[in-house]
Amino acid sequence: MLADYRKKGTMSVEEAGRLGGQKGGRRTAETHGRKFYEEIGHKGGQKVRRLIQEGKAHERK
């Protein structure tokens, strides 16, 4: 059964995902630009900051 699967295509699911991620990343950069990445980076940093603060508050209890 596994051998049948491999005969159907020449690309594994892992390879397809990696390739799609590369193309998708370029497309996103072309579509949204630098400001988009700055905004999502800031949001991610704020989330990490909040999680650290919550973890420290939990340790004090």
Report on this model:
By secondary structure, the chain is an all-alpha fold. The protein has a domain at 34-61. It has three helices and no strands. The termini are far apart.
Give a topology summary.
Blueprint: H1 2-8, H2 13-32, H3 34-60
Short description:
This protein has three helices and no strands.
Short key terms for the protein model shown above:
flat, mainly alpha
Figure out the total of helices. 3
Low-confidence stretches: none
Number of strands: 0
Q: What letter string, H or E per element, gives the SSE order? A: HHH
Q: Please state the average pLDDT score.
A: 82
What is the gyration radius calculated from CA atoms? Answer: 20 Å
In terms of structural class, how would the helical and strand content be classed? mainly alpha
